[in-house]
Amino acid sequence: MPNITLNLAVTESLDYMATELEKATKSGKSLEKAVAELLPKVIKENKRIIFNGNNYSKEWEKEAGKRGLLNLKNTVDALPQLTSKEAIGAFEKYKVLNEREVRARYDIMVEQYVKTVNVEGQLMVLMANRYILPAALDYQKQVAESIAAVKSAGGRSVEAKKVLNKATKLTDALKQRTDKLAHALDNEGNGDAVKHARHFRDVVIPAMAALRETGDDLELMIPHETWPLATYREMLFIK
């Protein structure tokens, strides 16, 4: 679909330019002169989209806002552009898709978004409960037993207690955020796919990000032999 849309945009632009040049040459102008007059006009009309700096920078984001350009940062915000009057008009003009076909593809993509995020979210809940939480509890137990052993021997383990406190807080946060994500995933769309997609964008994805953050923090604490999942280092550098 992205390639179809890009090709459609190019087609529309070429059609416009070809039509303008044909009009000019029919009125007696040479092709060279017609091109020389058309190009500055096109650049002037579309100058606001031209930016030769870093298009991923915050500076360009601000500048684009000043120029009135769209800044659609997620799928749910971007997809409705497909069914805009201008987009449907272009699809129909060049006989690529009719309105019904465009709207059908929009519905499918909204549903696909929901299903994809749902699968990823359900997998996160499973991994957190089945793998990370048991490892975190096991590590918490190891540290607690170490502190108890030191104490029974008459020593003090100040730093170990700090480690235990941190591990306990992260473990509690992991379980809380896992439950929060599971609850967020248990949402009924009630037949409104767009409303359902907005829920996933506004509630589910932030809950996934929060859970990921806690899991990453625990990964940095838990020893290699206790951590149950492959790390990036292992996947990239260890055969």
Compute the number of helices: 9
Q: Can you tell me the residue ranges where pLDDT is under 50 for at least 5 consecutive residues?
A: none
Shape: elongated
- Estimate what percentage of residues fall within beta strands: under 5%
Radius of gyration: 28 Å
Please estimate the helix content. Answer: over 70%
What is the N-to-C succession of helices and strands? Answer: HHHHHHHHH
Number of domains: 2
CATH class of the largest domain: Mainly Alpha
The total strand number stands at 0
User: Biggest β-sheet: count, sense, barrel?
Assistant: none
Architecture overview:
The chain is an all-alpha fold. It folds into two domains: 2-102, no CATH class; 107-237, Four Helix Bundle (Hemerythrin (Met), subunit A) (Up-down Bundle), CATH 1.20.120. Helix content is 75%, strand content 0%. The protein contains nine helices and no strands. The protein has helices at residues 2-26, 31-46, 58-66, 75-78, 85-93, 99-152, 158-185, 193-221, 232-237. The longest helix has 54 residues, at 99-152. The two termini are 38 Å apart.
Q: Would you kindly provide a brief summary of this structure?
A:
The protein is mainly alpha-helical and 239 residues long. Helix content is 75%, strand content 0%.
